[in-house]
Amino acid sequence: MCAIRQVRRGPVRFRSASEAGPGAMDWDDLRVIHAVVGTGSLSAAARSLGLSQPTIGRRVQALEERLGLILFERGADGYRPTPALEALLPHLRAMAEAAAALEREARVQADPGTGLVRVAADGWASRFLAERLPQLREALPGINLAIDFERIVPDLGGDSVHLGIYTAVPDLPGLRSRLVARSAYAVYGLRSYVDRHPEAWTTDRFDRCDWVIYDRERVGGTSPITAADPVRARLAAAPRVLRLTTTDLILSALLSGAGLALIPCFIGDADPELVRVSPIVPELEHRYRLVVHQDVGRSPRIARAKEAIAALFAAERRLMEGEAAPAEPVGAPLTA
User: Where does the HTH lysR-type domain lie (predicted)?
Assistant: First the structure.
């Protein structure tokens, strides 16, 4: 019988040059070089590694002296790899990927099936999860959930964020995703606002109503829902528009009676103070995917959380797809 004993839970650390003997490579120094290449500056590399900038500088200089090579061109625009370092980069990247894979596998093998699971999601999806934490907590005894608001998919290959809920998934090695929800959108307004502005039900809403919209230009980035571009352009051209940069601000403005807004049906239909004044806008359908790194997903606690979150979305399918709203008058289509 073989017994496996867990000695430590920290990151895997390669033997340093001083421990291994003269001429040996120190992985800690190589990790610093990799960070400087990736960030382009000592200060950014220091932040990414949790070290001081002088420490990063000393590590770079020490490795250059050990190798007898100049690795970076120092300039006002940052640190750029020299031809010598460019030749070494394929090997350095291979070492970094192997070390990261080793750390992921070690965490999988040491995972007791309980502990912290951190989930990242965009604004509306993070609100969906936060409002259903009691159900998730009941379905996941022994799991401590943390929810992060992140506009784009963060690094899911480490141990800082484990799962993501997003409509756009980057094409990166190791990432796996599956469709968990189709989110319908429609026009909503506060009941008292709609009562004062009956044109909200008609195509006159564009010119005669106030609008609350997401300020995509200010925030930056593009939407994967390209079919919705004409709809967004028409809203942006309305005469009375309030532009906001977060989904929380949009919902707050909507509930204050600031105007009409295009929001997910799972948000609008769940609030009795809001009324849907248009049919579902098919061009705005968002397809949410549950994203995980293939290695991280084999961890027992991550696998448990992944299935519970997928089941939660499945249970709320009618709400997500705009089928759970009470019977009310349906206004003019948005694209009419």
Answer: 25-82
